[in-house]
Amino acid sequence: MEQQKTISRRTFLAGAAAATVFATVGGKEILGKIIPKLNSAAATGRLAGTFSVSLDQFAALQQVDGSVRLSIAGLNHKVLVTRVAETEFTAVSEVCTHSGCAIGNYEVANKRFQCPCHGSRFAADGSVLRGPAPRALDSYPVEFDSAANMVHLEIAGISAAPDQPDAAAYLAPIAVSNGMANVRYGLAAPARVTLTIWTVAGEQVMIPVEQAQEAGEHTAVIAIGQLPAGQYLCRIQTSDGFSATEKFVVVR
Asked: Second label for 163, Cα 20 to 30 Å away, from 50, 106, 132, 194?
């Protein structure tokens, strides 16, 4: 099998991202904050940083085998952070390397993640326990600061200026209920917004929003009762360059 892809500090790209985190713990969404910090690359004028998650804010990470699923603004997939020992944490992408499905939550009894689509299994560090996944989950460097009780993550392509932690655009995890999808998003500045719905196979099925909007928080309530059961992607694109994608599931 191919080697696990670990995102290194050298692969950071510049760009501001909100420090808002939506953590899913036991199926319940919790709104929290992360703290963006600049690393040594800041001396060159490039924004590149470490995102720090306080364990005081996320109770699930205060004990061994605790795990949270973090949705970070600007990142088109979620990150699973798991405490595997008193001083050891792992951080992996939720995207299964077989067909791109979102893997399930961490199974404490079995010490693993499992993909609901084709049954691939992964250890907390992302290594493959059972196929058909051809390689390990993408992982992120993670450090535990016991003195500050914080976990520091490095995420390629995402950085945030510490003096603008709440200013950037974001797309929150999508809540689906009674045939409706509630899509929450924020704009850093006035922009033309295009919100589209796609199948995981890449077919566009809906354009619920296509208009100019003011900066700030917005909610789009989308009727999805006519869509066949399955996984879908909601994608936001703005005229000032912001783009993000969230998965949701339609169940019959």
From this structure: 194
Q: What pLDDT tens digit does each residue of the chain (252 aa) get?
A: 333 443 333 332 233 333 444 444 444 444 444 444 444 343 444 333 567 777 877 778 889 999 988 776 556 678 899 999 999 999 999 889 988 888 989 999 999 999 988 899 999 999 999 999 999 999 988 889 888 888 888 776 555 433 343 446 788 888 888 899 999 888 888 899 999 999 988 899 999 999 999 888 899 999 999 999 999 999 999 998 888 888 899 987
Question: Among candidates 187, 131, 98, 127, which has minimal Cα distance to 5?
Answer: 127
79-85 and 175-177 as β-strands: parallel, antiparallel, unpaired?
unpaired
DSSP string, 63-91: STT-EEEEEETT-SS-EEEEEEETTEEEE
* CA 157 – CA 30 distance, rounded (Å): 24
Domain 170-250: give its CATH code: 2.60.40.2550
CA dist list (Å): 145 to 4, 7, 52, 56, 65: 25, 20, 10, 13, 18
Residue 173, Cβ neighbours under 10 Å: how many?
A: 18
For domain 9-154, the CATH architecture is: 3-layer Sandwich (2.102)
Domains 9-154 and 170-250 in one fold: no
| Residue extents of the structural domains in the chain | 9-154, 170-250
